[in-house]
Amino acid sequence: MSIHPQIIEKDGRKEFVVLPYEEFLQIQEALEDLEDLRVLREERVSAASEATRSLDDVLAEINE
Length: 64
Prior knowledge:
It is a single chain. The chain is of the alpha+beta class and about 60 residues long. Helix content is about 55%, strand content about 15%. It has helices at about 20-45, 55-60; strands spanning about 5-10, 15-20. It has a two-stranded antiparallel ribbon. A hairpin with a 2-residue loop joins strand 1 (about 5-10) and strand 2 (about 15-20).
């Protein structure tokens, strides 16, 4: 991803960044993907200690 920021200074210090809207949307989507990945990894770790059932057991229970 390539971004083209415009830096706006205030009193000689960098104060704001302006991005083209499409670039902002790309960054927003990437951040959302990273958050989804973080949550997925946390759930995977917490689920590792939970009991599991085979697909055959689940199907047998559904068909009862």
